């Protein structure tokens, strides 16, 4: 009880209700001042604060809407880019496959062409060899024939006398005459 009376005694230190003065108690004055300031702010600043918050809300919603539109556009562009990428990859694969098959075709054509050329060159070589052999054989025949003819003429000239020679010429003329009659 002594504490209760002490609290009433301490009330005597407060200034009376009708007077104006300074309150030196920091905790009680700050609380009162804060409540007064908050009350004034709420009363007068409610409209301004609600307008500011509404404007901020509209800006945020517009930003979200714009972001969603940009996101949708970006997603659409991304899908288009992916589709183009797939198309380009397919074309690249097709070019690669076609390129490889074209290379193989060209390689086979080159091999076939080269083998044909080699075969033709081999044929030309064989024909040239045969021609040269035939020419060499013909030259040898001509030389053998010429030597045989010289030998025969030499033998005939040494063995034949004038009379035998004239009979031989007459017989050959007769053979040529009979051959002429057959052909006519």
Could you characterize the architecture of this molecule?
With 184 residues, the chain is mostly helical. The protein has one domain. 90% of the residues lie in helices and 0% in strands. It contains three helices and no strands.
Write the layout of secondary structure elements.
Layout: H1 2-10, H2 26-159, H3 162-183
Structural class: mainly alpha
What can be said about the biggest beta sheet? none
Q: Based on DSSP secondary structure assignment, what is the total number of beta strands?
A: 0
Distance between the termini: 184 Å
What is the number of helical segments per DSSP (H or I, 4+ residues)?
3
Tell me the Rg in angstroms.
68 Å
Question: How much helix is in the residues?
Answer: over 70%
Oligomer: single chain
**Spans with pLDDT under 50 lasting ≥5 residues?**
1-15
Mean pLDDT: 82
Topology order in helix (H) and strand (E) letters: HHH
Count of spatially separate domains: 1
Percent of residues in β-strands:
under 5%
Shape: rod-shaped
Concise synopsis of the structure shown:
It contains three helices and no strands. By secondary structure, the protein is mainly alpha-helical. The termini are far apart.
Descriptive keywords:
184 residues; mainly alpha; 3 helices; disordered N terminus; CF(0)
């Amino acid at each position: 009880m002594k504490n209760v009376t002490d609290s009433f005694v301490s009330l005597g230190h407060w200034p009376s209700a009708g007077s104006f003065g300074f309150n030196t108690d920091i905790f009680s004055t700050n609380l009162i001042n804060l409540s007064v300031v908050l009350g004034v702010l709420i009363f007068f600043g409610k409209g301004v604060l609600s307008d500011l918050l509404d404007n901020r809300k509209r800006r945020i919603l517009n930003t979200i809407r714009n972001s969603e539109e940009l996101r949708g556009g970006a997603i659409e562009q991304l899908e288009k880019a992916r589709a183009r990428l797939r198309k380009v990859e397919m074309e690249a694969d097709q070019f690669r496959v076609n390129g490889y098959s074209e290379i193989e075709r060209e390689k086979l054509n080159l091999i076939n062409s080269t083998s044909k050329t080699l075969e033709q060159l081999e044929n030309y070589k064989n024909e040239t060899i045969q021609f040269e052999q035939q020419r060499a054989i013909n030259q040898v025949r001509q030389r053998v024939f010429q030597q045989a003819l010289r030998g025969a003429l030499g033998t005939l000239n040494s063995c034949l006398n004038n009379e035998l020679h004239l009979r031989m010429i007459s017989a050959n003329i007769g053979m040529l005459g009979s051959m002429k009659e057959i052909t006519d």
